[in-house]
Amino acid sequence: MSNRRTMTRRQFLRVSALATAGAITAACGGAATPEVVEEPEVVEEPKAEETTEETTSASGYSEAPSLAALVAAGDLPPVDERLPLEPFVVGPGVRIVPEDLDWEVGQYSKEGEILRAVTSNPTWSYPCQHALESFLNTPEHHTGPITGNLCSSWSVNDDMTEYEFTLRKGLKWSDGVPVTTEDIKFVWEDVVLNEAITPIVGSNFRAGAKAGGEVMDLQIVDDFTFTITFASPTGRFLKTMGMANLWNPYGFLLKPKHYLSQFHKDYITTADLTKLASDEGVSEEEWNRVFDDKGGSWWGGGCEHAAEAMPVLRPWIVKESPEDLIIMERNPYYWKVDTEGKQLPYVERIDGVVVADPGNIPAKIIAGEGNYQREILLHTDIALYKEHAAENHYKVDLDMVYHNAPVALFFNLNNPDEAWREIVWQKEFRQAVNAAIDYTEIIDVLFLGMGDVDPWIPDVNDKDEANRLLDSVGLDKRDAEGWRLYPNGERFEFRMDVRTDPLFIQPSEVIKVHLEEVGISVPLKQLERSLWGEMRGANELYASIDWLDDCNWPYIQSDYMPNSRIQWAQLWHLYMQTGGEEGEEPPAWMKELYALDAEMAALNPNTPAGADAETRFAAWFMEYVPVLPLARDVKDPVIVPENLGNVPHAGRSSAMMFAGEQVFFKS
Question: Can you give the pLDDT at residue 18?
Fold first, then answer.
């Protein structure tokens, strides 16, 4: 592999606290060599609650008292045997940029110190969804600097076609079984390339990150090293492997073979397959459904109840739990330490408190059942949460912002209604809608003024300009009630169908008022989630509100593409993905977006070429406004225990949970 730039971790951060703790080993998160402290006296058959001090190993690593008790009882190997040869070291600026967090060494939680998050999803909790690990690491939501994470080292050649990765030696699954490239080979050959499990190989495995690109070549070098080669430049693979540390967990290419093979048709006998199908209530031909349920799905992290038994690499393990609770406990084989050699995570247990209705979340929190919450808290409930903060020993933090817009207005450009298409395809119509919307009012009403107008679209707020543009696209006639008419004389309706969630309902109600002020009739329907999903799949939506990760555009997230969110131009996307064999041919301006996306998919974002492509993408979006983000950098109400440490004072709230292994309860 020629012209390679090696990108292993630099000599770790030098801080004064390490003066007595020893030096930090280089190369992708080498471990600190902390000062050895006297071990506490070990009593016969100790219990976790009886040990209150952390213990330090011969190599200088320390562990939580609960784990030390298990070691003393002979139920767990010593910490030196559980950690890899070079643990990943968490310190200042490693997981969250230093300007957002004054990082400090933490302490292990004590009995009763539990983080609790309320969720309306019965299959996984927010902390579990965020407790993801990737092959590579950058500070959350940032494209660099890139270091290893699960990997001890990695490299890529100049044209972004040849990658090499080396797993940390001594890395172990949560059940203590070593992680090797056998697990990589298993996923690649028996999952990704197995049509029963993966009918179509995803674009993340293809050259240029294109659906029609050539499938990458994966070669196993030895027990820890593997190479990946693409037929053309594929810089977007950096994101797939973990750049920005968002929702790109290792499970797409790394799963525990020793566990999942018992559910794989190619690894079990015919008799075992028959029994497996019978036990799970499926036919033998549906064995792949069982495989997915047991942990083979995209998340691959065992967040789902059906996958509780699957070994993982994240900080906590989902334990057997009642239906109204999702219990996560510390992973004894977690492979990260802090700068003093303490094995992470600091917090022993995190609970997901399940409610049937999102409307019940505030009641649970003010009753003291939730103390670790973000993203789903409404700004209109902030006063309520603050009123009950002292009695429940939590605080309402308003220093951080959402990881997304958080929501946007989408036009469905491919709805089969020809009259609708004739209007909405004109960029002047979308510009008119943008001009009619008062984004500042939306921010004031929905988010108590705690946000900014989004920079991807023009900030116009001019009803006269909106009226002028609407007249220009053929909506210049009105009926007796003052509503605008199609050129054919029928009333033009801007139909909005939204899910029954306040985060979608509230902005749609404000937008309805704004558009009606310029003569646009806006029928608004609230739909149950599954019905809304059916309408989206059937291409029946006209307009809607959905999530948007625009603050991570265009290299970390790409939900600006027509197949994302409400799937706002799915027929055009189908045409582009099938080379014209299916779908409908998009207009030239939409093909420009695909060309830009293909260019950005090939590039390393941390280069001048990457910056130039982003500038041209921004100009395209500003002109054509196919999607309208409703806000930017909205303060996200975050609830945390009043004594929780390593909580950021700025930045995105998701970073706190993505880096949850470093939060701790202060004495």
Answer: 31
d(C-alpha 138, C-alpha 324), whole Å: 35
Residue in 425, 461, 457 with CA at minimum distance from that of residue 620: 457
- pLDDT, tens digit (0-9, with 9 covering 90-100), for 562-592: 999 999 999 999 999 899 999 999 999 999 9
Provide the pairing of β-strand 524-527 with 644-645: unpaired
Which residue, among 125, 93, 98, 63, has the nearest Cα to 657 in the 3D structure?
Answer: 125
Mean pLDDT of 255-281: 95
> Which domains, from first to last, does the chain contain?
132-307 (3.90.76.10), 316-399+637-665 (3.40.190.10), 407-629 (3.10.105.10)
Which amino acid would we find at residue 217? D
pTM across the whole model: 0.84
Instruction: List the strands of the sheet with 162-167, edge to edge.
Output: 4-6, 151-157, 162-167, 225-229, 217-220
pLDDT at 4: 38
Cβ(145)–Cβ(160) below 8 Å: no
3-state SS record for 569-587: CHHHHHHHHCCCCCCCCCC
Question: Is the pLDDT reported for residue 20 higher than 70?
Answer: no
Q: What is the mean pLDDT of residues 3-21?
A: 33
As a whole number of angstroms, the distance between CA 67 and CA 70 comes to: 5
DSSP 439: H
Q: Alpha-carbon distance 464 to 486, whole Å?
A: 20
From the number of C-beta atoms within 10 Å of its C-beta (0-12, 13-18, 19+), residue 431 rates as buried
Q: For 115, which DSSP code?
A: E
pLDDT tens-digit series, residues 21-45: 333 233 333 333 333 333 333 333 3
Q: Counting Cβ atoms within 10 Å, is residue 45 exposed (0-12), middle (13-18) or buried (19+)?
A: exposed
10 Å Cβ neighbour count for 107? 15
| 330-346 average pLDDT score | 98
Q: 199: how many CB neighbours lie within 10 A of its CB?
A: 8
The terminus-to-terminus CA distance of the chain in angstroms comes to 52
49: which DSSP letter? G
Average pLDDT of 446-467? 95
Q: Residue 403 is which amino acid? A: H
The share of the chain scoring above pLDDT 90, in percent, equals: 75
Q: List the beta bridge partners of residue 211.
A: none
Helix (H/G/I), strand (E/B), else coil: 516: helix
d(CA 409, CA 627): 6
- 638 near 397, Cβ under 8 Å? yes
- How far is it, in rounded angstroms, from Cα 180 to Cα 183? 6
- Which residue in the block uniquely carries the two structure tokens 């739990």? 321
Virtual CA dihedral for 230, 246, 141, 654, nearest 10 degrees? 180
Q: 587: buried, middle or exposed (CB in 10 Å: 19+, 13-18, 0-12)? A: exposed
Cα angle 490, 494, 496 (rounded to 5 degrees) comes to: 140
Whether the CB-CB separation of 126 and 362 falls below 8 Å is answered with no
